Amino acid sequence: MEAERFERIRERFSRIYERNPALKKLPLEVWETALADARLVPLAGVEENLFRLRRDFRGFPEGTVLGEEILVPGFPHIPRIFRLTSGVPRYFAGPFFAEEKIEGYNVRLFTVGGEILAVTRRGFVCPFATDRWPDFLPRLPEFFEEHPNLAVCCEVAGPGNPFVGEWPSYVKEDVRFFVFDLLRFPEGRFLPPEEKYALFEAYQFPAPEISGPFEPGDLSPLLELLRRYEAEGREGVVLKGASGSPYLKYVTPISNLEDLRVVFPYLGEVPPEYLTHRLVRYVLSRWELFGDFGPEEERALAGRVFRGLAEFLERISEGEPVSETFRVRFRTERAFRALLAHFRHAQVKVEVLSEERKRGYLEVTFRKIYPRATAFWRNKLEGFSVVD
Question: Where does the RNA ligase Pab1020 C-terminal domain lie (predicted)?
Fold first, then answer.
């Protein structure tokens, strides 16, 4: 039966290969090895014959989506610098822009078979963003009619998102979409900043705050921008060369503390280096932007990271699982059911707490339960020993 299923999948991909010239950089036999290794898998949740790459493969990045008429590359990982005053001159020879780095989750929007899809970094269809984009990008169909070979790269952010527990403090309810890049496919090339900014304005796309251009030889204005972002609790910046490259990211000290606060209850679900990386980032960015580590900073570090942990430990010691509650709005019930199917596929345990029609939306409250984090804390609270 398994052999029959693989043969059907292979035949589906063969039809794509015959019709898509961008795939012929590699022989069909090479792509079939990716199918056999499950690096390349059918894309669930769509009617079109589409596939996604689960891992990088022969120059094609993880999250790439393939079809008979499209090849949308996965979104690349942006290098991080830890010190602006040495990192910027090392990588930038000319002017660059600073775009606010938004705390949310990344999707690429594109059109295929007459439908606009939103896919995540890993190449999954995002039922939530696919459902909600009309609320925030009403001119998107017009944009794709005129620019069919561009993918719109967005950050979905706000307390009403179904995936992440952090968001910008100025998004008070629901979510917002922030368009930050336009990706030309199949080449996988980003439009240069000023070209994409003109398109953002022409189609009324909401975007992150954009500052610059800056010069590598005078970083005082950029440092002041980051100090303001720190005071306002913003995540940081993505620096983008005026010519279109390079891209670099840098985050504020406070965003690292917020990461630590949010993740601490979920230890067991994240690798240990998650904590050490953020502590290193905090120390270096705090020193660069402010120069000191007085008692006030020590209190802020402890107060922010450990806030609420006593109550959390009480709940776990009383037998509650580690969980996270989300309140999300959908335009259609179909999108909500598709999101639940996505969670099942990803083996995420979800309990639906309420569903209510309100103000034209289906408003849903659900909680995600984290078994590994529950076991991590419960074993320690119940007195089990470990060898370390």
Answer: 262-383
Q: Burial of 191 by CB count in 10 Å (0-12 exposed, 13-18 middle, 19+ buried)?
A: middle
Side by side, the strands of the sheet bearing 115-120 are 115-120, 105-112, 150-157, 176-184, 189-190
Cα–Cα distance, 59 to 23 (Å, whole number): 11
The 10s digit of each residue's pLDDT in 124-142 is 999 999 999 999 999 999 9
Query: CA geometry: angle at 288 spanning 244 and 263, to 5°?
Result: 80
Domains and CATH numbers, the chain: 2-68 (no CATH), 84-249 (3.30.470.30), 254-307 (no CATH), 319-381 (3.30.70.2160)
- Spatial contact of 324 and 343, defined as CB atoms under 8 Å apart: no
**Triad 182, 180, 184: Cα angle to 5°:** 10
Q: Scan for tokens 């335009």, then name that residue.
A: 331
- Does residue 1 have a pLDDT over 60? no
What pLDDT score was predicted for residue 74? 96
Contact at 8 Å (CB) between 254 and 230?
A: yes
Does position 298 have pLDDT exceeding 80, yes or no? no
pLDDT band at 320, cuts 50/70/90? Answer: very high
Cα torsion for 189, 342, 178, 142, to the nearest 10°?
A: 70
Contacts (Cβ under 8 Å, ≥6 apart) of 368: 323, 324, 326, 343, 348, 349, 350
Mean of the per-residue pLDDT values of the chain:
95
